[in-house]
Amino acid sequence: MSLASNFVDATLCCSLKVIRALHEELNLFEEKGIGFGGDRSLNIDLIAEKIFIEKLSEFGNILSEEAGFIDNGKDKKIVIDPIDGSYNVSNHIPYFGCSVYYEDTASVVVNLSNGDYFVKDDKGKRFDNLFRKPFHSNFRHDVILFEKAYQNPDMVAKLAKHNLKFRAPGALSLSLCYGEASKAVIYKGEIREFDIAAAKFYNSDCHWHFEEDLIIMSPKKEYLEEVLSIIKE
Predict the structure, then answer these.
(1) Could you tell me which residues come within 8 angstroms of residue 124 by beta carbon, excluding any fewer than 6 positions away?
(2) pTM exceeds 0.85
(3) Hey, is 202 helix, strand or coil?
């Protein structure tokens, strides 16, 4: 198998271990201070991070949301968000995952709550499920995924004015992957590499708009232009 395939298999194996830990470990939601990325760290964040670091260090240097940069003397970097959507996990909301990007080689984003996963490597791009045949959207492209909507009421009002439906699930990397089946994904807030690296690589064939604190992604250019014009009114 290729290096990319080995990396993907190792990452999916880690994801299964994290899912198992979610059901077996104790004190998952105990706070453990502030991580390198600036968010509060829960025990489950650190447990998941340890699983990924132990398995993936052979492939490259690691930049993780909790621990920061780990120099393994390699040529390439791996960017890890061990638990994307920690707030959802701690509140029993089934929308949280892990996000792993292997520089210029592969990306894996896994929905740890239902087993959906998104992979892009030297074999191309694919969507599957760890446990069963995945549920595929009918690709109606009529809903916007709006992360951090609660912090941007002015933008919410503009979408409502134009009768555009949106949802605010609470895990950016997952939304940027599922977004290939939506009208668009909007994120307004601090942009961090941990949150977007894997999804950006996975959906590189989609259309993206970046500003200092704004991301819009859409599977179609005309949708992106429509959403951008509305929120800029």
Answers:
(1) none
(2) yes
(3) helix
**Which residues, in sequence order, are bridge partners of residue 121?**
124
Distance between CA atoms of residues 129 and 162, nearest Å = 35
Task: Tell me if 206 sits within 8 A of 145, measured CB to CB.
Answer: no
Residue 77 amino acid letter: K
Model confidence pLDDT, tens digit, residues 17-40: 999 999 987 787 888 766 666 677
Cα separation of 48 and 144, whole Å? Answer: 30
Q: Give the N- to C-terminal CA distance of the chain in Å, as an integer.
A: 51
Distance CA 230, CA 59 (A): 43
The rounded distance, in Å, linking the Cα atoms of 45 and 154 is 32
For 136-169, the pLDDT digits (tens) are: 776 678 899 999 999 999 999 999 999 999 999 9
What is the residue type of 207?
A: H
